[in-house]
Amino acid sequence: MRSSIAGISVLLVALSSRAHAQSADAEALFVKGDALMQQGKLVEACEAFDASNRIETRAGTLIRLGECREQNHQLASAWSAYKDALTRVKDPKKREIARSKVAELEPKLSHLTLVVGADRRVDGLAVTRNGKPVDPGLWNDPVPVDGGDYEIAATAPGYEPWKTTVTVAITNGTSKVEVGKLVATPKPVTPVATAAAPVAPVAVVHARSRTLPFALGGAAIVALGGAVGLELWGESTYDQAKQDPDPAHQDSLWHSANTKRYAAEGLAVAGIAAAGVAVWLLLRPDARESDMRTAHLIVSPAGIVIVGSY
Known about the structure:
alpha+beta, Immunoglobulin-like, four-stranded antiparallel sheet
């Protein structure tokens, strides 16, 4: 039991110390506000009184804040401070000051009405006045405001933001701002992939080659003639070998005869092939230029080699 009482006592002392500390901070700011008002620095003075009131709300501080804002031509803010003082004041003299100031300023107040039509109320609509949200309950009603310039803005998800500026008179001003109809944000257009139309192959017709068939034909004749000549030469060498009594020389003749006959066979095959290609080039039906643009004939004992560029 004693320990509980001791604990409660410690807690009360701590809370009392904290309250005294808060009161000291609030008093310091109050004194600062008075000094600034005497110097004519009304903006700084009002900020000091407002800060003091946030730390510890007192009727006397609110009355002083109202006086400061009234001198700074912020009539709506002064009127609001005096009204707050009336809800907290206990001293009859301070109550009378606050009551008389509320009655004096109320007819002088300027009002601003934010008109938000039913066709403007899209989902998620938010209206701000100088960057501060305006509760939907205050839409379409005249609200007391200080004189000056106000930026009215409206935003909603999926819509382009809207804003305008209005100037309100210091006293007895009546201003209305009709919030514009928001324009939906254009949705990005996704390009639709379309299949490209197939391009028909273009047949390029070239002129028929006139020189290559005859060149191949001539090569075929040369090759076949060479084949016949080598074959006859080989037969002659073969006959000499059969009559030669020297075995060593006979073997050499045999070898020479075989080489000539092999070369004759190669030239014959090459000649026949060249002749066939020449005939095909002359008689082919499509009349296209031969894929072989240039050709070179290489004649060797083994045959004819046709080398061309394609």
